[in-house]
# Entry
Amino acid sequence: MDSQFADHLKFFADLGVTGVSRDRAWWSRVAVTPLSSPEATEATSVPTSTAVPAATAVPAASDSTQILMMLKDEIGPACMRCKLHALGRKQVVFGVGNPNANLMFVGEAPGADEDEQGEPFVGRAGQLLTKIIEAIGLKRHDVYIANIIKCRPPGNRNPEPDEVERCEPFLFRQVASVQPKVIIALGKFAAQSLLKTADPITRLRGRRFNYRGSTLIATFHPAYLLRNPSAKRDVWDDMKKARAILQGHE
Ligand code: URA
# Structure
């Protein structure tokens, strides 16, 4: 079997699609599209110097574990830098994974499960993210996962600008420490926050951005995929693109 086609079927199977259809429309939806040709790297207006202390800006790979631990300590378990500490969050959800990962995922904010367990992406959307990671041959512990903000907003509302402003310097320092080759922004909020743009996710997908020395691509949030399974095809395209960059093929 064509290996791209096999990959594609595995992705769908891993995501819980158990059958195939005789319907031509179904096949046209899953048909393997060739890896796209390299696109021009886009420059962005993202500042490169925000709140990254010189000491942590260019760590040796072996320092990254220590830097992340120090950063977590610096935030502290009872962070009160923004109002979310008084709005029902149970704990700070820092980040998880390989401190030297080549691939980093950035989501929006912890939800109820993450607030309970202290780890990003452990709820239903997180379980789907784990399958998406595995679909490109990696394990969850191979990558690094963090959010734009580290505390759960009440009722899962979007993070507010003052909350992002107080918290995102820590994400910048996580990125500076991990120095991933590729960052995948999960969903509209993460993509817009990282890229400082109001462009819709549909305009940000399919492009590449240079973000603080990493290649950033944006894709749909796994929670969106749970509601809109047909978007899995686009996510698979994005994941193939990330895999090609990681493998040095693009
Ligand atoms: N959604 C996110 O954006 N982040 C999480 O950690 C969980 C759900």
